[in-house]
Design brief:
The chain is mainly alpha-helical and 75 residues long. 43% of the residues lie in helices and 7% in strands. The protein has a two-stranded antiparallel sheet. The radius of gyration is 15 Å and the shape is globular.
Length: 75
């Protein structure tokens, strides 16, 4: 399980995911996800994208921004 204290740098995560995916059987490809909600809950931080907290996204009242943040987090 990846949490902020055990992530040192982005390439560490890249290497780990590559190793896990290469170890999984081809007929059962591995899906990898991260709890990256924005605000306080950001497992991956700088130099990667820093996401705003969802309260401020909603409070801005901008549907286009809300959609853009949601799509970015969902990728």
């Amino acid at each position: 399980m990846l949490f902020r204290p055990n992530i040192v740098e982005p390439m560490q995560v890249v290497d780990l995911v590559r190793a896990l995916r290469s170890a999984s059987p081809a007929e059962f490809p591995l899906a990898v996800s991260v709890d990256q909600e924005g605000g306080l809950v950001q497992r991956l931080r700088q130099p990667l994208t820093l996401w705003p907290d969802m309260f401020s996204v909603a409070a801005a009242g901008d549907p286009a921004r809300t959609e853009a943040v949601g799509r970015g987090l969902g990728d």
